């Protein structure tokens, strides 16, 4: 057995019995852990993991956060309320600001729901994952003790964005944190959600997030996810979204940090007229390994998905992208489009892109494509001929290339704020030099 799995088993044994058994979840938790131990880590023969090796990670051991790490409140000053903050996987009441939520909006940490009589905790943690390659989802089911529960009642339009903030902070030893989340919008509700994954100080923690998104008929969710963790961090995230009739899910994922990061985004368009417009960017510089895996299922008539993704790899970074779209039988009238464009800025960097389109229905509109290229030398020459320095010219072209996915949000204010963060990230290091 690998050191990673041994430490996870020890972590399960160290959980408080009250948390393990809460809401009658003891048996499902043990079953999930047993499945992880029986199947082990997926290797290169697993199609879902062939471009992301877990060999180095398997040799590492992780402990649990026993105490709440101290984080300077000033570091979160730019993130407005309402916000829910978890530090090293534990709810931080002092940094959170949960007041001022409108009537019909319920936001609380999962740990509080587990301690009380909240049936949503069972719904969130009770789901089974049967495939061996769903290692981290199974691990999450066994070990998750905190996270975020966010419910918006029927017809409620939340005026201000809600922020979920997950901070990895320096600690004694490497920590593994497993967090489970639920975002549920009832019929005709609307919400803007901003999800932050931030690093404070140097650390080499492992974070394992699993988010369930449920959108009822006519609901509308705008979701921005900013991943800017410390360079030593390892982050596994999975989002499973289910959309009912005429609901709309707009989201953007900015993968800017961590040493190893993998995000699986699974969207099921189950109701007629449901739409998912999801874009993102992967900025793999240094030695970062950033992996994104999309799986969009068109299961009803007249559903739509639009997926513009951009990747960039520099130095010895590696960006991995899998974009899968399946249009099921009976899903006539579906409209699906995926575009994955990538910039390779170094001969030592690597980009792997795999667009996949499977169609089992008639009368559909579908397109997908992927490109990997270099910066346009003609455009670079044009900018330099206007007196712009080489570094600034490269930066301008890279920013323009990465900007397109932000437009999917349909919110100019939020897009501009995220664009500014991307610019700050790019300014930390000269790319393509």
Question: If you had to describe this structure to a student in words, what would you say it looks like?
Answer:
This protein has 433 residues and is an alpha/beta fold. The protein has helices at residues 3-13, 17-21, 26-39, 55-58, 110-115, 119-125, 135-143, 377-385, 390-403, 412-427; strands spanning 83-87, 90-91, 105-109, 148-152, 162-169, 176-185, 190-200, 206-215, 220-228, 234-243, 248-255, 260-269, 275-284, 289-298, 304-313, 318-327, 335-344, 350-359, 365-373. The strands form two sheets. The chain has a ten-stranded mixed sheet with strand order 2-1-5-7-9-11-13-15-17-19, with helices on one face. A nine-stranded mixed sheet has the order 3-4-6-8-10-12-14-16-18. Strand 1 and strand 2 form a beta hairpin. Helix 3 (26-39) packs antiparallel against helix 7. The N and C termini lie far apart (43 Å).
Return the string of H and E elements: HHHHEEEHHHEEEEEEEEEEEEEEEEHHH
Indicate the low-confidence ranges by residue numbers.
none
- Beta strand count: 19
Report the span from N to C terminus: 43 Å
Mean pLDDT: 93
The major beta sheet can be summarized as: 10 strands, mixed
Secondary-structure blueprint of this entry?
Layout: H1 3-13, H2 17-21, H3 26-39, H4 55-58, E1 83-87, E2 90-91, E3 105-109, H5 110-115, H6 119-125, H7 135-143, E4 148-152, E5 162-169, E6 176-185, E7 190-200, E8 206-215, E9 220-228, E10 234-243, E11 248-255, E12 260-269, E13 275-284, E14 289-298, E15 304-313, E16 318-327, E17 335-344, E18 350-359, E19 365-373, H8 377-385, H9 390-403, H10 412-427
């Amino acid at each position: 057995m690998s050191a990673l799995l041994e430490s996870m088993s020890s972590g399960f044994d160290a959980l408080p019995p009250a948390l393990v058994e809460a809401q009658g979840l003891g048996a499902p938790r043990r079953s999930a852990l047993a499945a992880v131990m029986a199947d082990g880590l997926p290797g290169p023969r697993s199609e879902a993991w062939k471009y992301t090796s877990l060999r180095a990670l398997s040799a590492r051991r992780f402990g649990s956060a026993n105490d709440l790490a101290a984080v300077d409140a000033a570091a979160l000053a730019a993130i407005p309320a309402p916000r829910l903050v978890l530090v090293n996987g534990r709810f931080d009441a002092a940094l959170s600001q949960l007041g001022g939520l409108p009537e019909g909006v319920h936001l609380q940490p999962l740990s509080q729901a587990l301690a009380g009589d909240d049936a949503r905790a069972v719904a969130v943690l009770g789901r089974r994952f049967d495939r061996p390659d769903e290692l981290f989802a199974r691990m999450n089911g066994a070990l998750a003790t905190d996270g975020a529960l966010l419910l918006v009642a029927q017809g409620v339009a939340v005026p201000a964005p809600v922020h979920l903030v997950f901070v990895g902070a320096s600690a004694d030893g490497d920590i593994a944190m497993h967090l489970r989340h639920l975002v549920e919008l009832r019929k005709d509700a609307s919400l803007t959600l901003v999800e932050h994954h931030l690093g404070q100080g140097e650390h080499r923690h492992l974070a394992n997030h699993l988010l369930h998104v449920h959108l009822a008929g006519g609901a509308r969710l705008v979701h921005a996810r900013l991943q800017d963790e410390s360079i030593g961090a390892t982050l596994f995230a999975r989002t499973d979204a289910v959309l009912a009739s005429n609901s709309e899910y707009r989201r953007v994922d900015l993968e800017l940090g961590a040493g190893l990061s993998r995000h699986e985004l699974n969207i099921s368009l189950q109701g007629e007229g449901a739409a998912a417009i999801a874009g993102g960017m992967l900025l793999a510089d240094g030695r970062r390994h950033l992996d994104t895996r999309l799986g969009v299922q068109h299961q009803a008539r007249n559903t739509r998905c639009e997926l513009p993704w951009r990747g960039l790899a520099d130095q010895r970074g590696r960006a991995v992208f899998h974009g899968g779209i399946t249009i099921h039988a009976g899903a006539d009238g579906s409209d699906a489009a995926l575009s994955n464009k990538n910039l390779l800025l170094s001969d030592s960097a690597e980009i792997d892109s795999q667009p996949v389109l499977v169609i089992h229905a008639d009368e559909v509109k579908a397109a997908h494509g992927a490109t990997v290229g270099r910066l346009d030398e003609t455009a670079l020459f044009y900018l330099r001929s206007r007196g712009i320095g080489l570094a600034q010219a490269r930066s301008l072209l890279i920013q323009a290339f990465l900007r397109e996915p932000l437009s999917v949000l349909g919110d100019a204010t939020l897009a501009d704020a995220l664009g500014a963060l991307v610019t700050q990230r790019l300014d930390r290091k000269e790319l393509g030099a």
